[in-house]
Write a structure and sequence with these properties.
heterodimer; A: 366 residues; alpha/beta; D-Maltodextrin-Binding Protein, domain 2; 2 domains; 10-stranded mixed β-sheet; two-stranded parallel sheet; disordered N terminus; B: 428 residues; mainly alpha; MetI-like fold; 3-stranded antiparallel β-sheet; 4 strands
């Protein structure tokens, strides 16, 4: 009896001790050093950063970097929180770093940052192949999706009538523009937490908003009010938040030919048998039109590197070199294959030289 | 008197048919409810298996590779540096060109080169490294096809026409000629179970996620089981019954119902920000999931201890055993099957959890299969989530296949729990 009780007790003590010993020992071990690169940031850059990370891991003796999709804003927060292996080395962003974020980085001790512009991503408005292809202008998009629009009468003669905003009255595309089909306005798109939504609001909605001269005039005296008008999307059921998953939007478009969907170009590229991109300002979203910027809704993709971690975490220079090698970000590189729109050769060359010299951001012009 | 009893009998007889009907109806409702549940499960399984079964086989293309030293740029086979930097992609391209001679122009060449996966070059590098004598020789090799080709090839026999996707007409012709000469075939995809995540669907596997799940669950088990059992034993056998223990009990029951994302936030605030546990590693995942499963284990362990009849304890004390001896020698062994069942169910719950891991960085792209508790890792449900979000079409079948694997694990664990209970349980 006695023997048994002692074995039971020993077993329990061992199990308990083992658990805590393992965790404590390894926590200390890892906190001290990290041999893999830690990358956070935008879910739009994620598909491209991961390809580079994977190739880097396969062709060098370094372990494959870890890539987390935290969103552009979330990535900046983690990136700027400090220097040391507990913090990420690189953050991806589907927009440029804001000056407030740059300040936060400086305050967090992250002084030297290398900025890398890698390419572009197009945002498309697509519908099912079963429906006719749409041809929209940015102004049409603004009028269809903004929460408040100029009162319809004043639209016809904007110099004489009252310049007032009303809650968006449009129900069909035809009401906005007689050339458009008599179809209910129904747009599936990402929720406010998404970077795609921010970029869509900024490039498509504001792009159309600017075309209305008296609203543009507001910008000078009331920047916030202007942004409020141009970036707020209607909430009366004509714009449907369909979640962050772009695949889901594609599936829903396939089931509902009357709806349009908002998502990244790479998803259009992969699902060309199901959906077609609408023409924006007369331009079909294709690889070439986005690259030469004739297609208007495209956004830059960036990543930011913490210089203080170079030499501390092995392989950061190698990862950078892999990313800016011609076989990766080049015109026919593997990133283009994955749907990223590459920079022009001149820009690649100029930026590449700056990056190789590890030029730090000055924080001006953000 | 007799007439009234007759009346009653008659009344009962009359209502009897109605009562039988009510009885039948009630049973029918029950059967219908079960049928509805089964139908839902069957639909789910048919959908997932229908979409995912393809992922267990992968398309391979046969190539004749000539390990040409000039193309490789290797002059000295013993020079490791040279071997590592060799132009293996060039070898693949050349063997493709020699297979299809009707290629002209830059565009067509590009299309030709995307027939095979880029893993082919890494495979060639491995071949040369393991057997250097191959340099200058030729051999026939089956290499992975690109994901677009794979999806197209698998869908060729589909009733509503093949999925063309991004494949060009030229590529389709090449595939047809490969089919005619038997140079393309489906093989069992053992890589799917061995490798980690990849951005190339044809190379992506769930091996890394399975290993990550095992490491994470091990930590969870090692922490939550002893603590849970100790808490349950104390509360059930030793603790005085007063307001404090009532308060603790309410809290434990409450914790069992807290949404799991809260535990993720707790893990972020306490383990990562305060104790500086690194992100994205099985330790942090295991810690958070342990905290999450503790209430489940405590509650089921207490129920198991409660079901041990008091006569056992009284008999033990009667022959002079101390309370600790009674618990360790008699109550615990008898309650163990119940505790294990509860623990396994708690573990199954932890295995299927994604939400708490979101906050602690385990939703990440990780290629290398983790080799320990401090290597970055991801887990099965997270892998499913990541693949479901990927643009490449070929990930659709991978997602469903990963769901099948996760379901297999869950079914195994739950069956184990049922079997254990049936085998070891004692009825009093």
């Amino acid at each position: 009896m006695k023997k048994r009780s002692s074995t039971v007790a020993q077993f329990k003590a061992a199990a308990l001790g083992c658990g805590f010993a393992i965790s404590l020992a390894s926590i200390q071990a890892v906190a001290a050093s990290r041999d893999y690169i830690s990358i956070v940031g935008s879910s739009t850059v994620y598909p491209f950063a991961t390809v580079v990370a994977e190739r880097f891991g396969k062709t060098t003796p370094h372990p494959t970097p870890k890539v987390e999709a935290t969103g552009s804003g979330g990535g900046m927060k983690l990136f700027c929180s400090g220097v040391g292996t507990g913090h990420p080395d690189i953050t991806n962003a589907s927009r440029r770093m804001k000056s407030s974020e740059f300040k936060k980085c400086q305050n967090g001790g992250v002084k030297d940052i290398v900025e890398v512009l890698i390419g572009f991503d197009g945002i498309v408005l697509a519908n099912s192949l079963k429906a006719p292809q749409m041809s929209l202008s940015r102004k049409d998009i603004f009028l269809a999706l903004a929460k408040h629009v100029p009162a319809p009468k004043s639209m016809q003669d904007e110099f004489t009538s009252a310049k007032t905003l009303v809650a968006n009255p449009y129900k069909t595309w035809k009401e906005i523009n007689p050339a458009l089909p008599d179809m209910k306005i129904e747009v599936l798109g990402p929720p406010p937490t998404s970077g795609t939504r921010d970029a869509f609001a900024e490039l498509a909605l504001e792009g159309g908003c600017k075309k209305i001269s008296w609203i543009k005039a507001i910008k000078k005296r009331d920047k916030r009010g202007y942004k409020e008008i141009c970036h707020t999307i209607r909430e009366d059921g004509h714009y449907i938040e369909a979640g962050e998953n772009d695949n889901l939007i594609v599936q829903k478009l396939n089931a509902n030919p009357n709806a349009l969907g908002v998502f990244g170009f790479s998803f259009l590229d992969q699902n060309a048998d199901k959906v077609q991109g609408s023409l924006i300002e007369g331009q079909v979203p294709t690889f070439d039109t986005i690259a030469d910027k004739s297609y208007p809704i495209s956004r830059p993709l960036y990543f930011y590197v913490k210089k203080a971690h170079m030499g501390v975490v092995p392989g950061i220079e190698g990862y950078l070199a892999e990313f800016i090698s011609e076989k990766a970000w080049g015109g026919e590189g593997y990133l283009a294959e994955k749907g990223m729109i590459p920079l022009s050769a001149d820009v690649r060359k100029a930026n590449g030289d700056d990056i190789k010299a590890l030029k730090s951001m000055s924080g001006e012009g953000l | 008197m007799s007439s009234s009893s007759k009346d009653t009998t008659q009344q009962i007889r009359k209502s009897l048919a109605k009562r039988y009907r009510a009885e039948k109806r009630f049973r029918l409702y029950g059967v219908l409810a079960i049928l509805f549940g089964l139908l839902c499960v069957a639909t789910l399984f048919v959908d997932i298996i229908g979409k995912g079964h393809g992922a267990f086989r992968q398309t391979y293309i046969e190539l004749t590779v000539n390990y040409d030293a000039d193309i490789l740029g290797v002059s000295d086979i013993n020079d490791k540096q040279q071997l590592a930097l060799g132009n293996y992609a060039g070898l693949v391209k050349k063997s493709l060109r020699s297979k299809f001679t009707d290629v002209s122009g830059r565009r067509e060449k590009r299309e030709l080169y995307t027939l095979v996966s880029n893993s082919a070059e890494y495979e060639l590098a491995d071949r040369i490294k393991t057997s250097p004598s191959l340099l200058g020789q030729s051999e026939k090799l089956w290499v992975l096809a690109d994901d677009d080709i794979d999806t197209y090839f698998k869908s060729l026999n589909r009733s509503d026409g093949p999925f063309i996707g991004r494949t060009s007409e030229k590529q389709q012709q090449w595939i047809q000629s490969l089919i005619d000469e038997g140079g393309i075939k489906l093989r069992f995809n053992s890589n799917f179970f061995k490798t980690g995540d990849s951005r190339e669907p044809e190379q992506a596997g769930i091996g890394g996620a399975i290993v990550g799940s095992l490491f994470t669950l091990f930590i969870t088990l090692v922490i939550s089981f002893p603590i849970g059992v100790a808490a349950a034993v104390y509360l059930e056998e030793f603790a005085p019954k007063n307001r404090w223990t009532d308060f603790i009990e309410v809290n434990i029951n409450n914790l069992a119902a807290v949404p799991s994302i809260i535990f993720g936030l707790l893990g972020l605030a306490i383990f990562i920000n305060f104790f500086h546990v690194p992100r994205s590693v099985p330790i942090i995942g295991g810690l958070v999931l342990a905290v999450m499963t503790l209430p489940t284990i405590i509650i089921s362990s207490r129920a198991a201890i409660k079901s041990v009849p008091p006569s056992i304890r009284e008999a033990g004390i009667g022959i002079g055993a101390s309370p600790v001896q009674v618990v360790l020698h008699h109550v615990l062994p008898l309650a163990l099957p119940g505790m294990l069942t509860g623990t396994i169910i708690g573990m199954a719950q932890a295995l299927g959890e994604t939400a708490p891991l979101l906050m602690i960085g385990m939703v990440a792209f990780i290629v290398d299969v983790p080799g320990g508790f401090t290597d970055p890792a991801t887990v099965l449900p997270v892998q499913i989530f990541l693949w479901a979000d990927s643009p490449e079409r070929a990930f659709v079948e991978k997602t469903s296949a990963a769901i099948m694997v996760l379901l297999a694990f869950l079914i195994t664990m739950n069956t184990l729990a049922v079997v254990l209970r049936k085998r070891l349980e004692r009825r009093w």
